[in-house]
Amino acid sequence: VKNPIKYSLIKQYLKNSKAEKYAFKKKDEYKSKKKVTSFLIQLLAKKSDIYLSYGKPMDLFGNDVDENGVSLAPNGMPVDVKDYYVSDGKIKNDPQRDRVYTHNLGEVITKRYLKENIVLSSHLLAFSAFEILRKRHSAKDVFSLQEKHPEELEIPMEQLKTVVGKLVDRLKVLADQDEVKLSNIIQKDEIEALIKDGIKNVGIFHNNKPLTISKDGKVRSEDLELLYYYHNRLNGYGLEREF
Amino acid sequence: LNENSKPIGVIGAGSFGTAIANILAEKSEVLMYVRNPDRIEATNEKRYNSGQQIHSNIKAILSEEELASRCQLIFPMVPSNNFRKMIKSFAPYLRPDHILIHGTKGVDVVLTGEERLSTLNGLGRSKIRTMSEVIQEETSVVRIGCLAGPNLSAEMAQKQPAGALVASPFKEVTLKGNAALNIARFKVFESTDLLGAEFAGILKNIFAIAAGILSGLGYGNNARSLLITKGLHEMLHLGNDLGGATKAFLGIAGIGDLIATCSSELSRNNIVGRRIATGDKIDDILADMDEVAEGIRSVLIFNAYCKATGITAPITQMLYKVIFQGKDPLTGVQILMDYNYNNDVSFLD
After folding, report:
1. Which end of chain A is more exposed for a tag (fewer CB within 10 A), N or C?
2. pLDDT tens digits, residue range B230-271?
3. Tally of CA atoms within 13 A in the half-sphere of B79 that contains its CB
4. Closest Cα of chain A to B12: distance in Å?
């Protein structure tokens, strides 16, 4: 709880990507006892579903592995993994070769992640809201949005409904092609319930809310960095082209 | 000849495969896989194949299993339209310790159900495969490279000096390819950008057809130089979008091969272009050819790619109209002369 990965990862990423613009401005939100207590109460009190997605097992080279632990090449043929390290008939140490294997494995994991990822309402809402704001302000990154006046960052509910509806249609097409998995609520055709559920659940483990709804029906963000973090869960599907 | 090392394999006995086998044979024993039993006799007895003398270190064989079990380093030199079928027949005998360096300058297209290449309305990158991607899909081989560059078979057969690029992310592949091919008359360069080298070799064939059309229309060096310069722009534009880095297109596999193939009247793609300029129909031209002109397939495929992605490639798209829709070649050239190219050089900006 002291330093949850979810929060520190986005800070690390933002710091690395734009070091000159970004600094740790806020104090660690988990330092004060009061905040820790408040966080724990929220965590225990709120009801939330947990989704687990079991991907197909793979070996160090990105090959599928069958139930007997045998690696299968992309064409389905069994392979002896020792042969990946053999040159001129002998096992040889070759750090450059192994770096390419590591790089290739990274590519396979990235592709597999996109397929096995389960889209939750919270991810979809964060993605929709962030992309609406990014598009509205022609913003390249989260920093330029942080400089805007709060009123410029309000999203009318009707606009959100249209965008979420469009993205759900696209996600369903991708799911039919086995390119992604969808949680139950996204498969239903109830956009209003989906929006409500998404806003309620996004950032459930954080004190600052990535999205809130005001009484006049406008959607706002208390924390654009967190919104950006949850938005990133749907990167890689080309959904931004739907805007 | 290195007596301790394994023989080197060559798959395919076309003019380019035979020329490469002859170069490899200067330093190594070479096993050349041929599909047609007639070629066995031509190669092993008459020592003459695809218009070339056969080096005494080359032996032709018919068995995929023998080639794969005796050779660790193999050079597949088979046209793109037959490549997947060929590599599938080798797949049972190939392992992750094999090294494959292909020399095929064309792409494979993954079509489903009733889709046909000639009637496709658009074609995204997800349906296009380079030969290294076909090898990855169909076999357990990972150490893959490609051989690209200005290598006109007829000049290689005459033992004229030439150079080529071996590209692979694996240093082991480029080192072994270089060691096997580098001889006094054949200079080998190395690169880690496999996709860039593949797409450079693939895309230049399109402009070789255009160069042939210009020759057929009676135009000279000024028009050809204009084509080569703007063709390079177009190759870069398409190649970058397809996943190749700019550098590959500015080296021997890109501009080098583009100049050779656009200047030579020996290139198959150039011959196709000249015949189109004189009014011959594409079906008749293809029926008369012994070997595949890869550029024709490339025009079809990359025109469909432009449609799917919205990318503009004026020469490629005009060639499609001339070759497949009967547009008059002279009118095509005039339209391209009117095209609004804003900058002389934009790719270094």
Report:
1. N
2. 999 999 999 999 999 999 999 999 999 999 999 988 788 899
3. 14
4. 22
In the predicted model, is pLDDT for residue A63 greater than 60? yes
Closest CA to A72 of B64, B91, B102: B91
pLDDT tens-digit map of B24-65: 999 999 999 999 888 888 899 999 988 899 999 999 999 999
Identify which has the larger pLDDT, B213 or A188: B213
CA distance A198 to chain B (A): 32
Put residue B301 in one of left, alpha, beta given phi > 0 → left and psi -120 to 50 → alpha: alpha
User: Which of B92, B95, B170 lies closest to A97 in CB terms?
Assistant: B170
Q: Any chain A CB within 8 A of the CB of B171?
A: yes
